[in-house]
Design a protein that fits this description.
37% helix, elongated, EC 2.3.2.27, 7 helices, alpha+beta
Length: 389
């Protein structure tokens, strides 16, 4: 690890423990709340999927017809499993158009209904002959380390029951508005070296982020692949159509219904205990922060009271010295303060009215935890200085 990385890690650690760990406690609390929110979402999705029985594609029409009065606009939540086929296979009335035919992978030649092509730049990072750690290319254009070109193409496709097509029914799969991950498989993976250019030589001399190769990848949803679909199904223009449900984390998946339930249950358990652990740590850190600052506030208040007491004592001592009340052997024994036995009684307590303390001792008694008169032990609220005429 470089010195810059060490400095960054030290700065992050210093920020985390700032204010007696208050920032760390707040961050842990936010993480705990996020874990609990994700746990509630995952457990809700698990309950919904568990409540939905696995249905055959051929039985979907009867299920939709039985639930026409319940959520007709949104459709019925179903879980089905079938094989992927392009929509052109059911269009027998006219020759299938080019847009509806299956896609072909350029690298492998596989037929697919979804084709994702990605090109990623691979770079060799070093500090150059001057040891500079920044990338000059990142100052003027997009950094090579983040440069990734990706394109995705798809054609309309359907799900059919495996082994029974074309005798069985089918359901159209609509990807409109879906943000769920797709069950794509990598069929092409090639690394192509990049020839050095004068610009690369300049990068090698002055900075890092030197492009050395391009990684080409192709991922497809192959024709004939068996997948599971979890979503809202309804009749659209006389045909069955299935769309994704935003409340569920799955739409199209390689896993079966039982595997999806097991995966959601495991994620829910992890999120639950993560929320518990992070919540306990955040409560502990924030509790320590509150206790530590409360102790500091009490110490600051005590010091301020002592400072005020000392200032008042100095004023009273000066006044007593000027009036001759200091212990110089001239104070009669019956008029000495009952606390210090050195100075003349000058302060009477309220509300009891006993004149038993000097001004300084009266201040100390009043600033105690539970101020009481030294004679009658009655609670006192203040004191009054008594002056001789």
């Amino acid at each position: 690890m470089s010195s810059r990385d060490n400095a960054a890690a030290f700065a992050v650690a210093h920020l985390a423990v700032a204010c007696d760990g208050a920032i760390l406690g707040v961050v842990l609390a936010v993480c705990a709340a996020t874990s609990w929110f994700k746990y509630l979402t995952a457990s809700s999705a698990l309950d919904k999927i568990r409540a939905v029985p696995s249905a055959c594609i051929s039985d979907l029409r009867s299920l939709i017809a039985a639930s026409d009065g319940e959520g007709e606009d949104e459709g019925k939540l179903v879980v089905i499993r079938g094989q992927v086929q392009p929509k052109s296979t059911i269009e027998t009335a006219w020759p299938p158009s080019k847009n509806n035919s299956a896609l072909s992978s350029q690298g492998s030649g596989h037929r697919a209904v979804i084709l994702q092509q990605t090109q990623t730049c691979i770079y060799n990072e070093w500090r150059g002959i001057f040891g500079w750690s920044f990338d000059l290319h990142a100052l003027f254009a997009k950094s090579w380390r983040e440069q990734r070109l990706s394109s995705i193409r798809s054609v309309p496709f359907i799900l059919v029951e495996g082994g029974q097509w074309p005798k069985s029914g089918y359901v159209h799969i609509s990807l409109d508005g879906s943000t769920h991950p797709l069950p794509l498989a990598t069929v092409y993976h090639q690394l192509r070296p990049i020839q050095p250019t004068p610009y690369s030589i300049c990068q090698a001399i002055f900075g890092n982020g030197i492009p050395v190769a391009l990684l080409d990848e192709e991922k497809i949803l192959a024709v004939g692949k068996e997948i599971t679909a979890v979503g809202m199904c309804k009749l659209q223009n006389g045909a069955l159509e299935m769309k994704s449900c935003s409340d569920l984390p799955y739409f199209l998946s390689n896993m079966t219904k039982d595997e999806i339930e097991a995966d959601l249950a495991a994620n829910s358990k992890i999120l639950f205990w993560s929320g518990v652990v992070l919540g306990a740590f955040s409560v502990g850190v924030l509790g320590f922060t509150v206790f530590r600052n409360w102790r500091r506030w009490k110490e600051w208040r005590r010091r301020r009271q002592i400072h005020t007491l000392n200032r008042e004592s100095n004023v009273e001592s000066t006044a007593d010295a000027e009036s001759g009340d200091a212990s110089d052997g001239d104070v009669p024994e019956g008029q000495l303060c009952v606390v210090c036995l050195m100075r003349r009684k000058r302060s009477a307590f309220v509300p009891c009215g006993h004149l038993v303390c000097c001004s300084q001792c009266a201040i100390y008694v009043l600033h105690g935890l539970s101020p009481k008169c030294p004679v009658c032990r009655q609670a006192i609220s203040s004191s009054i200085r008594i002056y001789d005429s």
